[in-house]
Amino acid sequence: MALPSHLPINEIILEPTENIEGMKCIGQEITDELEYAPVKLFINRYIRNKYVAPADEKGNQQVKIVSLDFRPIPKCIAGTTLLSQIISDNFVDHLPLYRQIQ
């Protein structure tokens, strides 16, 4: 699902914490997440570089990439602040979801 192109984007580059010395960068995984700040929406763009190690004696190669396990719901485009705003609008302010969408 494409996010609106008019929203501002915060690019966050994540690198693996493991040793990547001698590895070659083979690409990037880009994950967009819709976030909310009072009275505005913005996009956090996580750019994760993928690295591959040289082939070992058996011809196997190992790929390293940072996991996105810190996100509240896997594969969800909503970030933590947007989810918390939706939940508080629904349960604290008694605002139904269909009215939040409008």
Alpha-beta content class: alpha+beta
Compute the number of structural domains. Answer: 1
Shape: elongated
**Poorly predicted ranges:** none
Secondary structure tally, helices: 2
InterPro entries: Transposase-related (IPR052344)
Quickly list its features:
102 residues, alpha+beta
Question: Can you tell me about this structure?
Answer:
- The protein is of the alpha+beta class and 102 residues long.
- 17% of the residues lie in helices and 34% in strands.
- Strands 1, 2, 3 and 4 form a four-stranded mixed beta sheet that branches.
- The radius of gyration is 18 Å and the shape is elongated.
- 2% of the residues are buried.
- The mean pLDDT is 89.
Question: How is this structure best summarized?
Answer:
The chain has 102 residues and is an alpha+beta fold. It has two helices and four strands, in the order ββββαα.
Secondary structure layout plus pairing:
Elements: E1 9-14, E2 24-37, E3 40-52, E4 63-64, H1 80-91, H2 97-101
Parallel strand pairs: 1-3
Antiparallel strand pairs: 2-3, 3-4
